[in-house]
Amino acid sequence: MTQTIFDRIAILGVGLLGSSLAQAVRAYGGAKDIHLFDADKEARSIAGRLLDGRVFDSAADAVENADAVFLCVPVGALGLLTRDISSSLAHGAILTDVGSVKQKASEDMAEACPDHVHLIPGHPIAGTEKSGPTAGFADLFKEAWHILTPLPSGEPGYAAAVERLVAFWEGLGARVEQMAPDRHDRVLAITSHLPHLIAYNIVSTAYDMESVEDGEVVKYSAGGFRDFTRIASSDPTMWRDVFLTNRDAVLETLGRFSEDLAALQRAIRWGDGDALFREFTRARGIRQAVIEAPDDVRDLRLELLGLEL
Amino acid sequence: MTQTIFDRIAILGVGLLGSSLAQAVRAYGGAKDIHLFDADKEARSIAGRLLDGRVFDSAADAVENADAVFLCVPVGALGLLTRDISSSLAHGAILTDVGSVKQKASEDMAEACPDHVHLIPGHPIAGTEKSGPTAGFADLFKEAWHILTPLPSGEPGYAAAVERLVAFWEGLGARVEQMAPDRHDRVLAITSHLPHLIAYNIVSTAYDMESVEDGEVVKYSAGGFRDFTRIASSDPTMWRDVFLTNRDAVLETLGRFSEDLAALQRAIRWGDGDALFREFTRARGIRQAVIEAPDDVRDLRLELLGLEL
Question: Which ipTM value was assigned to this complex?
């Protein structure tokens, strides 16, 4: 049990992330009281049965006297939700989120966040393909990276607030890093957003071929396709918002991906086995680095660059 | 323990598939004697220590008096290997393979296969991203589909030979299906070949960005990217051969994939959230079908088509 960092936290949105957060705090500490809210009535009702916290019918009521408020909703809803609660946020409270895109999230929240509140956007690199309050579990954040993108703030008390939030997440088992929001969005575009887009797309392509091939696409999915369907079963609303709000980084990364794919396509068309072999071998090298991460990422990266063929 | 179907089998190539086959036969039966061969000296030496069979230094010697010969090598090597053993194959023996592309495999093997041998090409929809003799295990084929693509042969005894081979694979736990080789190649292009190509490609794109982003691509790989690196760590030689020998079906499928991706790209660029949401929801539907397969694939397919949005 970690020390109590906050007397009271409010969790707004009790999907996979919010529900896991409530359970993690009960399991590992970090706060005494938990206030919960969700815009969806059924989710509130499930939260009341499933989670050990007080459920409110209004977001503004839920955040009253909370030391820290966690917005666990899709990125596109952050601005509106911040507006809804802005007049109820306590002086010196921390406002944070778990959104997958940080530049837009920061801007939207900052616009509605009162000056007397410490806004510290955040993003746990944790999740599963499941969604909703029943999908949550206490160990979701354990050993996972948690990225905070603090504002360049000169406010008194801001640095101390960041330290408290770091200690809170570390208490739940996370490894916390800080970086600039635009850098976060660029890195996540390749490590998370593009993989999801590609997975959605390949499943969609297969779907259209399914009727042509008479059920056999599903039947023989063990050949590699099944892994993609898992990723592609993630929450559609959340992912729609990710692509709408991280547009530039995703389009840039997608452009590179398509160029590289065109080169492979050309190698296949012209029977250039050497080029295919070289690319596949190179891809295999990065796998080794990923398996061995994160114990000593920096060293692995150096090894990786040494693998250049 | 299943009944003994063959007195002696020869397994040529002791990588993941060949090594698993040898172990499966020892665990579940199907043959009394196992003869083993691999072109690679080190693989032969490992096979000698690891597998319960007699290891030969020449493929031709290994197949002598074998009732069934299993070619467990990359598709591109099938023709040459068949030529190497053709004069040593016993009258009435079965010659089969485990190659991922069946049209080209059938043609290459048929060209060198003597008339007195029953050629029955095959492909187990089973595997892992690991390769080499030490990666094999006895249960690889359990509950997995095994596709046979018998020739349109009028030879006496051919139908009986197919039945024996079906019984052999079923004895190892596989579920056997028969289909035409071109259909196999079209179905596998979308369920296996394209997913691997895409995984190799995204890992390659990430590799090039890795140096730009200073190690952070590997560090934050849990966001989705890690799943792709697993697929992309499969054997480069095997996959080079797949793309060289199933060129037309892969290019056709890749063309569809790229069109669909262009549509998603356009939706992102123009902020068409409705289109993104619709596609992501559709992709989620196919996941359900895949999870529930294969208990009653046909019914699921009907449900799936009912999901049309």
Answer: 0.86
- The string of DSSP letters for B174-194 reads -EEEE--HHHHHHHHIIIIIH
A-B contacts at Cβ under 8 angstroms: 329
Q: Which CATH architecture does the domain made up of A6-179 adopt?
A: 3-Layer(aba) Sandwich (3.40)
What are the extents of the domains in chain B? 6-179, 183-271
Instruction: Report the alpha-carbon distance of residue B31 to residue A238 in Å, rounded.
Output: 54
Count the Cβ atoms, other than its own, within 10 Å of residue B197.
Answer: 29
Q: What is the pLDDT along chain B (309 residues), one digit of tens a residue?
A: 557 899 999 999 999 999 999 999 999 999 999 999 999 999 999 999 999 999 999 999 999 999 999 999 999 999 999 999 999 999 999 999 999 999 999 999 999 999 999 999 999 998 888 889 999 999 999 999 999 999 987 788 999 999 999 999 999 999 999 999 999 999 999 999 999 999 999 988 988 887 666 778 888 887 788 888 888 888 899 999 999 999 999 999 999 999 999 999 999 999 999 999 999 998 887 777 776 654 444 333 333 333 322
Is the domain spanning A183-271 CATH 1.10.3660.10? The answer is yes
> Does A299 touch chain B if contact means CB atoms closer than 8 Å?
no
SS3 B97: strand
Characterize A202-229 residue by residue with b for buried, 16 or more Cβ atoms within 10 angstroms of its Cβ, and e for exposed.
bbbbbbebbeebebbbbbbbbbbbbbbb
CA distance A203 to A233: 10
Residues of B in contact with A301 (CB under 8 A): 210, 214-215, 218
